Amino acid sequence: MNNYISALSVLTASVLLSPLSMANQPWSQDRQWLFGDWNGERTQLEQQGYKFTAALMNQSAYGLDGGYKDNNGFETTSQLTFGANFDLAKIAGWDDTTANIIVTKREGKSLTNESIKDPRASQLGNVQEVYGRGEIWRLTQAWVKKGFNDNTVQFKIGRMGLSDDFNASHCEFQNLLLCGGQLGKSIGSIWYNWPVSVWGANLKYQFAPEWTVGLGVYEVNPDNIKTASNSDGFNLDMNNVEGALIPVELIWKPKLALFNGLPGEYKLGALYSSAEANDVSVAGKVHDSKHSVWLNAQQQLSQQGADAKRGLYVSFNAVINDKDTTAVTSTQQLAFWYKGPFDSRPNDSVGFGLANYVVNDRVTDRQIATNNSRGYVDYDAFATDYVPVQDDELNVELNYSYQWSPAIMLRPNLQYIYQPAGIKAVKDAWVAGLTMRINF
């Protein structure tokens, strides 16, 4: 990890101090990849159907004020990603067929876990979204996708994360709940986001120009989230499958006159899990299923000049979970970002978002009852057997994404966490963060 940070520091200094770099330098502003085009071989391979990717994401967070420890802690976490995509139509003559494989490795610590939240409480948010699921190598994707009838029907099978194809959302932020799909943040025991993969299959059918429906079947297998060794990240057996998770989603992609014909995407979905789930309020009670519903909406609100990508965007995401079996009954997210805020910086963006976790009142009541049985009436910051009483948690982030080149992105950000882990007695936290992404 220290090697990653040192390399990033040197690279960042080079970027900021070299505005007149030549195009053949790794830090030049038109550099597609940090390691270049391999003397043209990379582009040639892609034209032949072989596309290779390698990237490093680093997210640092510094506690400005508040939190459980109320100190100026600093933590950093990173993710390495190596991938290959194969256009099998070009390679093998298989029309409308692609295959993909991605391997990832995460390292580092979370400021939320180390300083911001009460360590006796279960985690809700995280100020570094790239943290989690263990410091091990993982097979994150290994799938094949086949299109039929001019790709109006697509079938996909293999190893994948559930939010790759359902409840998917854009990520313009460092805060966990403001980044990507929401379900994995509240029902992570069965819904696995990146970097975890599971065996699954899904079918997407575009039945009208603006309308698509999707249906999937995925395993619920706790072996997939084990982190004891690197072998756990490459577990391919299905010996301990506990059930099936079945999502269905309706997608609408209109260009509404209300927004001057600018594109939008709206998703309504639901899931059913056949795996047994524990009741959150009654010890020992078990339910034979679990369910959730969600809404994802993204709309471009304005366009800057002739560039269709520049302008103001808004997204709203909401999840409602099964109240009998889920500690977080719902999440809501509202985010705005403006792409190309300056003519001289058409690829930069400014982002502002708010995201909320709503803790199940049955969980809160059970925590209060547990403390009363142990003689605790008020919050006790030192007792090891005290159970912190959790309520809602609100996350806010303001950031600026500085796209130096297609190869290098820097995203300084300021975050505010209201009631960390939903605990009223813990001081609200202010955090300064920096995301750095490098495409090799």
TrEMBL record:
It holds the Pfam family OprB. This is Porin, OprB family. It comes from the Bacteria. InterPro entries: Carb-sel_porin_OprB, OprB_Porin, OprB_sf. Keywords: Signal. The keyword Signal applies. GO terms for biological process: carbohydrate transport. Belongs to the OprB family. Residues 1-23 form the signal peptide. GO terms for molecular function: porin activity. The lineage of its organism: Bacteria, Pseudomonadati, Pseudomonadota, Gammaproteobacteria, Moraxellales. One of its GO terms (cellular component) is membrane.
